[in-house]
Design goal:
The complex is a heterodimer of chains A (232) and B (100). With 232 residues, chain A is an all-alpha fold. Chain A folds into two domains: 154 residues, no CATH class; 54 residues. Helices cover 80% and strands 0% of the residues of chain A. Chain A contains twelve helices and no strands. In chain A, helix 3 runs antiparallel to helix 4. Chain B is mostly helical and 100 residues long. Chain B is 75% helix and 0% strand. Chain B contains four helices and no strands. In chain B, helix 3 packs antiparallel against helix 4. Classes of the chains: A mainly alpha (232), B mainly alpha (100). At the A-B interface, helix 1, helix 2, helix 3, helix 4 and helix 5 of A face helix 1, helix 2, helix 3 and helix 4 of B.
Chain lengths: 232, 100
């Protein structure tokens, strides 16, 4: 397998950036409408850098939720990244701690998904260029949204909401051709997450974490036998 | 410092810790096979859960339009692969359907 280069990371970031900019702009607009200053708004994207929890943070501030409540909700919502980081690290060669501290910061759902299925051997350089481009587009989008409002026609802004889902689909679909496991695990996990979320009314953070652990574990249980052949 | 700034810093800390711990603990270690397999499956299970049920509400109150947009992404990436055209194409499909 080819080792992935920095340039591969920059290229792979393009679809993420297309997805991030309109969402980040929407965040900037929402923050401004809720009375946040530009420093606070950009800090959200600059030091927190977690899409869904930024929106939830703003709405919880707006309804006057407590400090502890917001922190706990954020922790739960973003805990899934623990498993995503772990999955990426298992594919990387040993990383010095100071680099790990930076690479860990940039792990989002989208970066993780793109990096996990990149064609080639995952490398620090690739991950770094993928992360930094995605991150900067998120921060820049936030600043533009706050200062200029939506530059886009409203209908286009709404339509762009499909972007990140289309990204996930375009990552998953080619995998379905390669292995039946992709379909089985993804479909099972979509089903479990829908049930936990819609039927049991679990908050998104809980249901994502439980789903990822449960279905990956089921996968190990089901597929461990055939994989032994590969490892031994 | 404003209360909001303190809150942002608190949220950032509890977000950063889970993201970074694996880089400090797993890196450079030989993992048991079952754990390796578990971590190999996380991308599939995460993608499934990130898509469902969220995708239904991607375009507020228009589940069918969401579905139409995604069908384009499915079809194109099945035939040709890539990510940019599926993303831009889905947005275009949804945009046109929202206009008519």
């Amino acid at each position: 397998m080819n080792r992935l280069k920095s340039s591969d990371g920059f290229k792979a970031a393009i679809p993420i950036m297309i997805g991030y900019v309109p969402v980040a702009m929407a965040f900037g607009i929402l923050a401004r409408n809720n009375g946040l200053t530009i420093l606070e708004t950009i800090s959200f994207s600059f030091i927190l850098y977690a899409g869904a929890s930024q929106f939830i943070g703003i709405s919880m501030i707006a309804i006057g939720a407590g400090f502890g409540e917001i922190i706990l909700a954020t922790f739960l919502l973003n805990f899934r990244h623990f498993f995503m980081s772990a999955s990426l690290v298992a594919k990387l060669q040993s990383i010095p701690k100071h680099k790990g501290a930076i690479l860990g910061f940039g792990v989002t759902d989208e970066v993780f998904s793109v990096a996990s299925f990149a064609e080639g051997q995952l490398s620090e350089r690739y991950l770094f260029s993928l992360e930094i481009s995605s991150y900067l587009s998120w921060v820049a989008g936030t600043a533009v949204g706050f200062s200029m409002g939506s530059l886009l026609p409203e209908t286009l802004q709404v339509a762009m909401g499909i972007g990140l889902f289309a990204l996930f689909v375009s990552i998953l679909v080619p995998e379905l051709k390669k292995t039946s496991k992709a379909l089985v695990l993804a479909a099972l996990s979509g089903g479990v997450n829908s049930i936990l979320n819609l039927v049991f009314m679990l908050p998104q953070g809980w249901s994502l974490v439980i789903t990822i652990i449960l279905v990956s574990f089921i996968g190990v249980f089901v597929y461990a036998k055939e994989e032994e052949v590969v490892y031994e | 410092m404003s209360k909001v700034m303190l809150l942002i810093i608190g949220m950032a800390i509890v977000t950063y810790i889970p993201r970074v711990i694996p880089f400090f603990t797993i890196s450079n270690k030989e993992l048991p096979n079952k754990l390796k397999l578990f971590l190999e499956f996380v991308p599939y299970t995460a993608l499934g859960a990130l898509l469902m049920p969220g995708v239904i509400t991607a375009i507020p109150n228009q589940p069918l339009i969401s579905l139409a947009g995604l069908s384009f992404a499915c079809f194109y990436s099945w035939k040709k692969g890539g990510m940019i055209i599926p993303v831009v194409g889905s947005i275009t499909v949804v945009f046109i359907l929202l206009l008519i």
